[in-house]
Amino acid sequence: MTDTAQPIRAAACERVARALKDAGLEDTIREMPASTRTAEDAASACGCAVGQIVKSLVFRGKHSGRALLFLVAGDNRLDMKAAEALAGEPVSRPDAAYVRAETGFAIGGIPPLGHDRALKTYMDEDLLDYPLVHAAAGTPNSVFSVAPDALKTATSALSGPLKEAAA
Ligand code: 5CA
C-alpha cells in the first residue's frame, strides 16, 4: 500500500459515495471506529449536537403503496400527523425487511440518498437551521457531512414541520 492508497470501504458506503458524486456533492464519508447506529451514537462519534444528525426513517404510503423517506433531525420525534400532512397520504410503519427491500440498506445505516429506487423524500425543516448535518452513509458505523440545503436539493425533498410538539 502506498501513502496515497485509500482504505477499502464497505460496498454500501461505496454506493452512497457514487450517489453523492452523481449529485455533485463531495465524498465526505467517514467510517468511524465507534457505532453510529443511532442518532445519539452518531452525535457522540462526530462530536456534534444530536440535532445535527439526520435520521432517515422509511414509512409506507397507504394509498401509493410506495416507500417514503422522512429525514428528521436527531433530537426530534417524527409527528405522524405532520408526516401524513406533508406526504399527502396516510403512512404506516413497515418492518425491517420491507425497509431493506425498498432501499437496499439495513436499518441503522439507511442513507438519505443512494437507494435502489429513488424515494419520495420529506425533510424536517429544523435540519435547515444548521450549517452542516451528518447522515448515515450506508452502514451503522459510517457518516457523511453535507450542508442541509444541498441535501434537500440532492434528494428533491419537500421540507416542512415534522416534529412532535415537546412534551
Ligand atoms: N445511523 C443512525 C444515525 S444517521 C441512524 O440510522 N439513525 S436512524 O434513526 O435513521 O435509524 C434508526 C431508526 O430505525 C430508529 O429511529 C427507528 O425508527 C428505526 N427502526 C429501528 N428498528 C426498526 C425496525 N425493526 N423496524 C422498522 N424501523 C426500525
What does this structure look like?
The protein has 167 residues and is of the alpha/beta class. It has a single domain, classed as YbaK/aminoacyl-tRNA synthetase-associated domain (YbaK protein, Alpha-Beta Complex), CATH 3.90.960.10. Helices cover 26% and strands 22% of the residues. The chain has helices at residues 11-22, 39-46, 80-87, 96-103, 148-154, and strands at 30-31, 53-61, 67-73, 91-92, 120-124, 133-136, 142-146, 158-160. Strands 1, 2, 3, 4, 5, 6, 7 and 8 form an 8-stranded mixed β-sheet that branches. A hairpin with a 5-residue loop joins strand 6 (133-136) and strand 7 (142-146). The chain is globular, with a radius of gyration of 15 Å. The chain binds 5'-O-(N-(L-cysteinyl)-sulfamoyl)adenosine. 5'-O-(N-(L-cysteinyl)-sulfamoyl)adenosine is lined by residues 36-39, 42, 53-57, 95-96, 99, 107-110, 135-136, 140.
What's the CATH first level? Alpha Beta
Question: Which geometry do the CA atoms define?
Answer: globular
Measured between the Cα atoms of the first and last residue, the distance is: 54 Å
Q: So how many helices?
A: 5
Can you give the mean pLDDT? Answer: 96
Explain the layout of strands and helices.
Blueprint: H1 11-22, E1 30-31, H2 39-46, E2 53-61, E3 67-73, H3 80-87, E4 91-92, H4 96-103, E5 120-124, E6 133-136, E7 142-146, H5 148-154, E8 158-160
Parallel strand pairs: 2-6, 3-5, 5-8
Antiparallel strand pairs: 1-7, 2-3, 2-4, 6-7
The protein binds 5'-O-(N-(L-cysteinyl)-sulfamoyl)adenosine (5CA).
